[in-house]
Predict the 3D structure of the following.
Amino acid sequence: MVKYKYALLIFLISVFSVSCSSENEEDNVEPGIDKTANLQGLGDSAEDLLSDVSFTSMNIEIVYVNGYAPNEAALANFKNFLEERTFKPDGINISLRAVSPSGKTEFSIEDIVEIEKETRTIYNAGDEIAVYIYIADGSSEKDEDNKFTLGSAFRNTSMVIYAKTIQDFAARPNAPSESDIEAAVLNHEFGHLFGLVDIGIEPQSDHKDEDNAGHCNIEDCLMRASIEFGSGIIDEIEGGRVPALGSHCIRDLQAAGGR
């Protein structure tokens, strides 16, 4: 049962779209704020996020819809994941801010781009790199009967988590806990911001999933794309353990300036 539960967990953290959305230049202009560096392609800031060469600290803005605040245990796991893989001697700060419901039940990435434009308040400044995470109160428009998108990284410093979908799945019999799912999704999506797999940083070994762009083909790795629903088996996963990066992905991050 444990293996079955975590096969579902790894399946559900799959990202079905790693394409980035763009905006018109005139939409990016705001007096006193240069947003350009935070509106680049997915993986473009991998080395900046991982190393302390250009940025010695990281400021993460999590904007969540009222009623969908991220779980404290998931946030603690998420921050530990970041600290284990990055060099940020001046620290990693995570701030939370609630916003009103979106009024939508399904989102496209273009919808999320518009929400980011309206709600994002932090951008790179000096030696601090900024990241935006939106916790949505609906689901991805890409969801199907047996496929669920729980999160998407869509720019160099931007990602979305579909909290409503996470809550619905966690409420099912024998499902992993909500905090474990949420932590896995946050870590997985940030893995894409880190440039995994072959998105912004070059793989150091042959572990790229040729059928699923941006993902790892090694069993047990956090960055696997998907497992057939209900039939995939993940070996050597202990109950209650959030999936971790495999050694191949870790070597990629280290080669790009991470830990």
Notes: The helical segments are 2-12, 46-50, 72-85, 109-119, 163-170, 178-193, 247-255. Confidence is low (pLDDT under 50) at residues 1-7, 14-26, 227-237. The chain has seven helices and nine strands.
